């Protein structure tokens, strides 16, 4: 990975919170986008797009479009941590590396 590593932390129990190097990240446009990021981080494995669409977007006319929109919003907020979310045409996943991505309860520390 090029550039400095940042500590990215997700708090998924209680109030949803994402911090980078101790500073809170804001700008999450929707609950589904926050839920998608939390799901990807907590499960820490590969997911097929179709399955993510089934889980998060059962009603919209274009669930793949909704998924693309949410992933683009996650990338915008995590801009300094490009490698925290890897994607290709088939699979979306959040990467877990020591000190980079952690999921926990609010108030832990």
Question: How would you characterize this protein structure?
Answer:
- Helix content is 33%, strand content 25%.
- The chain contains 3 helices and 7 strands.
- The strands form 2 sheets. The protein has a 4-stranded mixed beta sheet, covered by helices on one side. It has a 3-stranded antiparallel beta sheet with strand order 4-6-5.
- A hairpin with a 2-residue loop joins strand 2 and strand 3.
- Helix 1 packs across helix 3 (63-77) and helix 2 (49-56) crosses helix 3.
- The protein starts with 7 loop residues before the first strand and ends with a strand.
Number of helices: 3
Strand order of the largest sheet: 3-2-1-7
- What's the shape? globular
Spans of at least 5 consecutive residues whose pLDDT stays below 50 are: 89-93, 96-109
Structural class of the secondary elements? Answer: alpha+beta
| Strand segment tally | 7
Rg over CA atoms, rounded to whole Å, is 14 Å
Beta percentage is: 15-25%
Major sheet: size, sense and barrel closure? 4 strands, mixed
């Amino acid at each position: 990975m090029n550039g400095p590593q940042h500590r990215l932390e997700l708090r998924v129990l209680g109030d949803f919170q994402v911090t980078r190097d101790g500073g809170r990240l804001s700008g999450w446009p929707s609950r589904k986008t926050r839920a998608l990021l939390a799901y990807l981080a907590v499960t820490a494995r590969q997911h097929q797009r179709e399955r993510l669409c089934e889980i998060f977007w059962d009603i919209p006319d274009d669930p793949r479009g909704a998924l693309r929109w949410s992933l683009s919003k996650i990338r915008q907020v995590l801009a300094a941590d490009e490698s925290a979310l890897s994607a290709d045409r088939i699979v979306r996943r959040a990467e877990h590396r020591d000190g980079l991505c952690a999921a926990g309860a609010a108030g832990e520390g």
